[in-house]
């Protein structure tokens, strides 16, 4: 489910739409953006409203559509919605929770409905680490079973991991475990302190770079793709490594030689919060990201296209000239731009520089604080 986005104008249409079909979930994960709860809300989009949303996504030719939660399996109509998306040419992915609801039979039905990809969370290489994070004994074993069942029916599997203080020391071991599993992508989420996510769990800028190094090294050894979410500066890291490798090759050969890099197509994508990315809440509110609580509009009142193209918050996020601090001066801002969600969560400024980036742009000098007294 890797798509070229070269022809997509991010001012006109998003590359990725995520729909939070429900906030109901039987887990209480420590980082949960949605602060999910056991029961479904009566304010959720109905089946018909969901189909209208899918119609709009089809009309915009959005390459990637993800149904998330909460736990999407808590919606009885989830198979009907996936089938409707498939019939209308929309490639749907799903992010269910590893609870007793996720059975072999359910995964078979998801495949039959036309699901393009199953994404499950794995936050540690051991049951102790993962189950503590997910606050549910047995979640680790359930996740591994779900992967096995998806493999049995030929349903591609993507792994989601939230990188934070709780598992930083375990990421190498987790990468080794994933190497042994049959998956197509590892998506590493970098914490944004919203919902249940705590600032104390947030990695430092130096630790971000350490994780980037781990991911880049692993990317050269494994068959699956690696991408980051709310870690946009991994793209900068990858390009820096490419340049360094080219220079080393030139030095050893004495001439320019096209290097053969086996790198992830995802590494240089320009998607960012509100720029190629849309999050639709369970009640139909449209946000630039599930981690950025600024409403662009409601699909119960406007079309998704109009909200994405014309909402002030979306238009602001797509105007990179407005970025503040070193993000505004950075030569990598076109492919990165920093996490707008993290900047907002930590500073209250939508356009502030990425708080967890150590890179200093060329010829950039931070303004000196004004001394009063």
Q: What do these coordinates show?
A:
Helix content is 34%, strand content 13%. The protein contains twelve helices and eleven strands. The protein has helices at residues 47-59, 78-87, 104-113, 127-134, 139-152, 171-180, 205-219, 233-253, 304-310, 312-318, 325-329, 340-347; strands spanning 16-20, 64-68, 92-94, 117-121, 157-163, 185-190, 225-229, 272-273, 276-280, 285-287, 297-298. Strands 1, 2, 3, 4, 5, 6, 7, 8, 9, 10 and 11 form an eleven-stranded mixed sheet that branches. Helix 1 (47-59) packs parallel to helix 2 (78-87) and helix 3 packs across helix 5 (139-152). It is globular. The termini are far apart. The model is unreliable at 1-5 and 259-265 (pLDDT under 50).
Write the layout of secondary structure elements.
Layout lengths: L15 E5 L26 H13 L4 E5 L9 H10 L4 E3 L9 H10 L3 E5 L5 H8 L4 H14 L4 E7 L7 H10 L4 E6 L14 H15 L5 E5 L3 H21 L18 E2 L2 E5 L4 E3 L9 E2 L5 H7 L1 H7 L6 H5 L10 H8 L26
Parallel strand pairs: 1-2, 1-9, 2-3, 3-4, 4-5, 5-6, 6-7, 8-9
Antiparallel strand pairs: 9-10, 10-11
Helix pairs in contact: 1-2, 2-3, 3-5
Regarding quaternary structure, what we see is single chain
Give the helix proportion (percent range). Answer: 25-40%
User: What is the tally of beta strands?
Assistant: 11
Written as H for each helix and E for each strand, in order along the chain, the element string is: EHEHEHEHHEHEHEHEEEEHHHH
Low-confidence stretches: 1-5, 259-265
């Amino acid at each position: 489910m890797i798509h070229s986005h070269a022809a997509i104008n991010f001012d006109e249409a998003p590359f990725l739409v995520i729909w939070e079909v429900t906030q109901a979930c039987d887990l209480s994960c420590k980082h949960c953006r949605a602060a999910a709860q056991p029961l479904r809300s009566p304010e959720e989009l109905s089946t018909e409203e969901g189909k209208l949303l899918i119609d709009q996504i089809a009309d915009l030719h959005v390459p990637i559509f993800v149904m998330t939660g909460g736990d999407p399996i808590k919606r009885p109509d989830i198979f009907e919605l996936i089938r409707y998306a498939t019939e209308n040419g929309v490639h749907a992915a799903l992010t269910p929770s590893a609870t007793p609801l996720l059975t072999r039979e359910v995964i078979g039905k998801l495949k039959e409905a036309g699901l393009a990809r199953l994404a499950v969370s794995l936050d540690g290489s051991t049951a102790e680490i993962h189950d503590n994070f997910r606050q549910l004994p047995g979640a680790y074993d359930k996740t591994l079973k779900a992967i096995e069942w998806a493999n049995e029916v030929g349903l591609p599997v993507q792994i989601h991991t939230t990188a934070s203080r709780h598992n930083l020391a375990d990421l190498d071991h987790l990468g080794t475990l994933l190497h042994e599993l049959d998956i197509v992508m590892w998506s590493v989420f970098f914490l944004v302190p919203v919902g249940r996510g705590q600032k104390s769990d947030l990695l430092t800028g130096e630790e971000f770079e350490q994780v980037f190094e781990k991911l880049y090294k692993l990317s050269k050894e494994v068959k699956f793709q690696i991408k980051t979410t709310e870690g946009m500066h991994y793209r900068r890291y990858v390009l820096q490594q490419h340049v360094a490798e080219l220079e080393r090759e030139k030095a050893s050969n004495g001439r320019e030689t096209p290097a053969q890099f086996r790198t992830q197509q995802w590494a240089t994508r320009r998607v960012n919060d509100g720029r190629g990315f849309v999050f639709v809440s369970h009640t139909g509110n449209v946000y630039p990201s599930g981690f950025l609580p600024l409403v662009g509009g409601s699909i119960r009142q406007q079309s998704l296209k109009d909200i994405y193209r014309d909402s002030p918050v979306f238009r602001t996020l797509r105007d990179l000239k407005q970025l503040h601090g070193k993000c505004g001066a950075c030569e990598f801002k076109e492919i990165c731009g920093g996490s707008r969600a993290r900047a907002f969560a930590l500073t209250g400024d939508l356009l502030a520089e990425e708080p967890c980036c150590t890179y200093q742009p060329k010829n950039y000098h931070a303004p000196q604080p004004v001394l009063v007294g």
